């Protein structure tokens, strides 16, 4: 067994599950875009919006990991779940509304500039938020990843490998 800071049953497991879930969600966005458009676009990996919500996946994986390790009646779980719900509401609410506003402004400026000789304008980013379904899918992915990280941690070979990486 490795000596030092362990990965599993610690804050590192919580952080690792959150980062892994968000990374998987961003990777899925690139894959879904490729399937739909038949061309690869790695820029999608670094953008917001789209299916599934990486924000939701990450924060729900964090909250789920805390719930697994500390219990669902713990203060830590309540805080992490509250944080997750705020992030998810923001993704489906405010950021989605901002994206719709950007789409409307882009359309108005495009139509207006067709009738006048104006300088090219910067197009506003429209895909900022998520639909409730994208948020739900991200959350489901986060729960799945958190449980997989935790239960795969009980496999001795994987646990020893990750513990040895985390030993400083």
Structural overview:
The chain has 168 residues and is an all-alpha fold. The protein has one domain (11-93, 129-166). It is 69% helix and 0% strand. It is built from 6 helices and no strands. The protein has helices spanning 11-37, 54-70, 75-92, 94-115, 132-152, 156-166. Helix 1 runs antiparallel to helix 2, helix 2 (54-70) runs antiparallel to helix 3 (75-92) and helix 2 (54-70) packs across helix 5. The longest helix has 27 residues, at 11-37.
Summarize this structure as a short list of keywords or feature phrases.
single chain, 168 residues, mainly alpha, 0% strand
Radius of gyration: 20 Å
Report the helical percentage: 55-70%
Taking the sheet with the most strands, its summary is:
none
Distance between the termini: 14 Å
Strand content: under 5%
Kindly name the structural category. mainly alpha
Average the pLDDT over all residues and give the rounded result. 81
Oligomer: single chain
Q: Characterize the overall form.
A: elongated
